[in-house]
Request: fold
Amino acid sequence: MAEAAVGLASAILTLTIFTFDTGKSLYEVLSSFRSQKKGIRDLKTELSSLLSIVATIREDVERSKEAERFEPLRQPLENCSITCREIREMLDACTIHSNGESDSVRDWLSLRFHERSFEEMKHRLSSYKSTLNICFELINGRNHTRTLNSLNELEGLIRGTREDLEEQLDRVLRTVNDSDALSQENLRADYARLKSSIESLSQAHKVIDTNHPKIVVEDNRAGPDSRAIFGTDTTQPHFMLNVSNNEAGKGALMGAGIYTSQTLRELLRDSRASETTLALQSLQTQPHSTDDTDIQSLLHSFSVQCKQELPSTSEVSSSRRLIISEHVSTTETLYPPTTPP
Reply:
């Protein structure tokens, strides 16, 4: 088992070093050009960002005792190194008889190599680099508590990168059948790499989904002429609200969602404590914070403004086992008691 872990660490480290060296070599060649057109500058920027990410990965791999954590980086690293190599091959095919003069650089920028243009390859590298960065961010997140905002930002990055990859995948599919045999072989390999990156992003999205705090309102019944209101007047709540299989009796008022403050006040007008009930129960035993500010914030979002005063923080925490965390390490589930007929 120990030998397997050492072998995995060695393989990931070797791939990391190879990716860094391949990207650095391409960056140095581009820097040697007399011409520094925008396309070249943009590619150098992408390479500089890639080298920074890979250097950080290498540092983490070298000092980590859990090599298996870095296995999700294998395919993204390979995709980045292969793309850097192919861009270099495009460059060599165009400038082999030149010294980086402007005409050769212009030819290279407009060249199609195995049915792929320079712009397409630059775009491909950017998407692969983004995939690598996302996977690495999630690996780091397992050892550090993440805020919901940071997860939302990462989720947006996943969505945007996936859209870019899917567009590139469509272009490859449209091109492959009309290409010669050699180009078809390269395009099929390109297709496989694009698919692997999309799969990496799918796995990353699953990780984020498991970390989002969730409030579940399900299998509840509001009795006749009763009221059961679940939700918040916060326009951007820091949780996911899932509602399903709830039933309202005759004359009952039942709702779940995000309301304006005015609507929520109207729904709760003249309400009595016995008419609307709220119970919060934590299903997690992970470390948590019971900071008074956080508790009051959640109570503001979900509690009913009844005529009686809300229980104190200590009463809520003990009697209802209310566990609050500013960070997404806890899942809360909402199970209101069934209102009797």
About this structure: Residues 1-94+113-210 form one domain.
